[in-house]
Amino acid sequence: MKVTVQHNQNIFDVAVQHLGDAYAAFDIAVLNGISISKELVPGTILSVPVVIADNKKMVEYLKINKKIPASSSEYTTSLLLQEGIGYWTIGQDFIVL
C-alpha cells in the first residue's frame, strides 16, 4: 500500500496512522530503504506493509475520528538543533567550576 506523508509527520507517526503500531516504523524504513530518523517531507509517498489484524482497531479509530498523528514540529526541531556542546559558550551557557 502507498501512503502520503502529512505535515509534521515522522516515520513513527506514519506507522501509527496506517499500521496502528509505532514498531511498524522499522518495517516501513526497511521497505523504503530509509533510516527511521530520516526527516520526512510532506507529500512524500511511502510504501507500507499490510495492517495486521491486531492493529486494525487503532487504524479505524484514527480514520473515523479524523486524527492524524504528527509529533514533529519546526519548534521542537529548532530547539533541539540549538542545544548541545556545539552551541554552548564556555562561561555563558556552559559553566566550568
Q: How large is the count of helical segments? A: 4
The profile of the biggest β sheet is: 2 strands, antiparallel
Percent of residues in helical segments?
25-40%
Q: How do the helices and strands follow one another from N- to C-terminus?
A: EHHEHH
The main sheet orders its strands as 1-2
Strand content: 5-15%
The rounded Rg comes to 17 Å
Task: Give structural notes.
- 36% of the residues lie in helices and 6% in strands.
- The protein is mainly alpha-helical and 97 residues long.
- It has one domain.
- The chain has a two-stranded antiparallel ribbon with strand order 1-2.
- Helix 1 crosses helix 2 (24-32).
- The radius of gyration is 17 Å and the shape is elongated.
- The mean pLDDT is 83.
Topology:
Elements: E1 2-4, H1 11-19, H2 24-32, E2 45-47, H3 56-64, H4 74-81
Antiparallel strand pairs: 1-2
Helix pairs in contact: 1-2, 1-3
Write a compact overview of the structure shown.
With 97 residues, this protein is mainly alpha-helical.
Q: Which features characterize this protein?
A:
two-stranded antiparallel ribbon; 4 helices; 97 residues; mainly alpha; single chain; elongated
